[in-house]
Structure prediction request, 181 residues.
Amino acid sequence: MKTNTKQISKFLSLILRHNPGKIELQLDENGWADVSELIRKANKHRNQLTIETLKEVVATNDKKRFAFNEDETKIRANQGHSIKVDLEYTPVQPPEFLYHGTVGKFREDIRRKGLLKMSRHHVHLSEELETAMKVGSRRGVPIILTVRSGDMHRNGIEFYQSDNGVWLTDTVASEYIEFKV
Prediction:
């Protein structure tokens, strides 16, 4: 039987990023869940989660959303949380430009307010146009925003990079954004 890694990845995103209480799972302050507890509690709701399945999802997820600790006894989401966790990011210097994909219906709000983290911990940015296109395409015809991250950094705004390469910052003021179609 083939493992449905996409379905399991969505389940893990829900549990490790947004709602661990759905299966009565506890995350530590850094977002880590005990692997054996996750498997045990997840299997009360679904019967297909094993350590092998978790390893497959972590290894094959195209966005590298999840990570194990060194001895693979704990797992967490790399970013995108709407719950309070401290992922222990260290500020780093970003490249001169980063990109954000969205759709046209948000254009005017972004022109007025900039990019806001909304219910997440950070605004998510990428180094590659292709990634921004994929993100924007999830909700319709994408528009790509070019963020002058080098200017932001020189003006004292902090950036972080998650383990899976996503660039993060608290907000992007509209004066740092260039709109591209």
Remarks:
- The first strand starts at residue 33 and ends at 34.
- The chain has two domains: 5-77, 98-179.
- The domain at 98-179 is CATH 3.20.170.30 (ADP-ribosylation fold).
- The chain has a mean pLDDT of 90.
